[in-house]
Write a structure and sequence with these properties.
Blueprint: H1 7-18, H2 23-35, H3 37-50, H4 66-72, H5 78-90, H6 95-104, E1 128-133, E2 139-145, E3 150-157, E4 164-170, E5 177-181, E6 186-191, E7 205-211, E8 227-230, E9 232-233
Antiparallel strand pairs: 1-2, 1-9, 2-3, 3-6, 4-5, 4-7, 7-8
Organism: Sphingomonas koreensis
Protein name: Anti-sigma K factor RskA C-terminal domain-containing protein
Region (Disordered): 215-234
Amino acid sequence: MTEPLSPDHDVLAAELALGVLDGAERAEALRLTLADPAFAAAVDAWRARLEPLGDDFAEAAPPDLWPAIEARLETRDVGAVRQLRFWRWGAIGSSALAASLAALLVFAPAPEPITVVKEVVRAPDQMAVAQLGGEAGASLAANYDPGQGTLRIRALEMPSSDLAPELWVIPADGVPRSLGLVSPQGTTSVAIPAKLRALIVDGATLAVTMEPVEGAPHAAPSSAPVAAGRISRI
């Protein structure tokens, strides 16, 4: 049974969904996304909850207010700084979202209310990750670097079989495209063909089926997936 997330990990998942992490914190959050299905699910849930909130806002240059606020903080406690940064990005949401966050988290008293213009940040080459699982007990983690066109997939657990795992991407049209065979143990680095890179997008599905080695990569899977998971951009 999956252990519930701690409050700190839930905050970290929300920060990763908002895109406010950098350095060691972002690296730790990405590691948890690949290693902890509950954490990855929390990131997906936060992203789904937050993404619609920016639809009705126009982009504008933000005022240089937050550095001044941080400089005036009486404490340099890391937790307080993290809370301030989280609320800075959370300010783009509605008051209903702020209420739901307050119900989940206990924050230090906030500074005097100020008006913050919404800031939109888009990374040109976002990493994509996926957690793959299934009823057969298979569990895999994948991350894709669009800059290199390379997908790394790590087999955490695979059923014993005389067949080989074959990786597929299933885009919105529902037609599986083979990305080739992967190792049932350890990590496999898969160079994605240029014609298939456009399919590795947010919301597409990665799946693994067990197939004969002969004839791979195959035109279509011959069996149901032993593991599958949705791709998420981070």
